[in-house]
Amino acid sequence: MTHEEIHIPAGHGKAFTVRTGQCFELVDVEGQQVGDLTALASADRDEHVFLPVTRLALGRLQFVRGDSLLTNHRRPILRLENDIAGADILFGVCDRYRYEIDFGMRDYHRSCRDNFVEALAEFGVSERQAGIASDNGVNIFINQRLDEHGAFHLDPPRTKPGDAAVFTACLDAIVAISACPEDGSPCNGGNPTPMMVRLL
Ligand SMILES: [Zn+2]
Fold first, then answer.
1. Is-above-0.90 flag for pTM?
2. Residue 114 parent element (H or E)
3. What is the three-class DSSP state of 100?
4. Nearest-angstrom CA–CA distance, 187 and 184
5. Nearest to residue 7, comparing CAs of 112, 16, 85?
């Protein structure tokens, strides 16, 4: 059986639709690459992944195998099915100001937020709706931890080439993935690379 593959160039984003019960894999093609992910309900684009509700439902700050991302309507939308090298439901995603303000870059730099808006527009999602969903994006494969003092630490991802995160859709959904363009931190090992989605 062949599966549809969606190739995501380094630093870019793609969106796709999934049906309830359908699985997909997010593949870190070359290793040490973070994939940012968000999702909206196909039936109502004002229903989207919502991190405060997700954290409340989980009762912790980690997102691990068996956990679901919840929407602003407090319904599961995507469930993580396997053990992965890391995930973050705290940081949010990079935006153009991350590069302008945090990294002092003068020229425009791609960002996960802009990638989401661009990719979701192909499915008729408005910039406002895409922006809200982007602000609730999850960092898959990120190597981030909180220490005993509550301080964040960010190190290069531990993923190896071909490592994958497997998700099941709990709702008919539009999913957006960004191969994070961040090159000014250890987030992607300093070298953004491509990702792939395999629809199962
Ligand atoms: Zn990013």
1. yes
2. helix 112-121
3. helix
4. 8
5. 16
How close is the Cα of 2 to the center of ligand 1, in Å? 30
Name every residue whose Cβ is closer than 8 Å to that of residue 84 and which is 6 or more positions away in sequence. Answer: 65, 140, 141, 159, 163, 165
Check: CB of residue 137 under 8 Å from CB of residue 36: yes
CA of 195 to the centre of ligand 1 (A): 13
Q: How far is the CA of 125 from the centre of ligand 1 (A)?
A: 20
Give pLDDT tens digits along the chain (200 positions).
Answer: 678 999 999 999 999 999 999 999 999 999 999 999 999 999 999 999 999 999 999 999 999 999 999 999 999 999 999 999 999 999 899 999 999 999 999 999 999 999 999 999 999 999 999 999 999 999 999 999 888 998 989 999 999 999 999 999 999 999 999 999 999 889 999 999 999 999 99
Q: What are phi and psi of 84, to 5 degrees?
A: -130, 170
Q: Cα(180) to centroid of ligand 1, in Å?
A: 4
Distance CA 188, CA 195 (A): 12
Name residue 168's amino acid.
Answer: T
> Is residue 193 within 8 Å of 27, Cβ to Cβ?
no
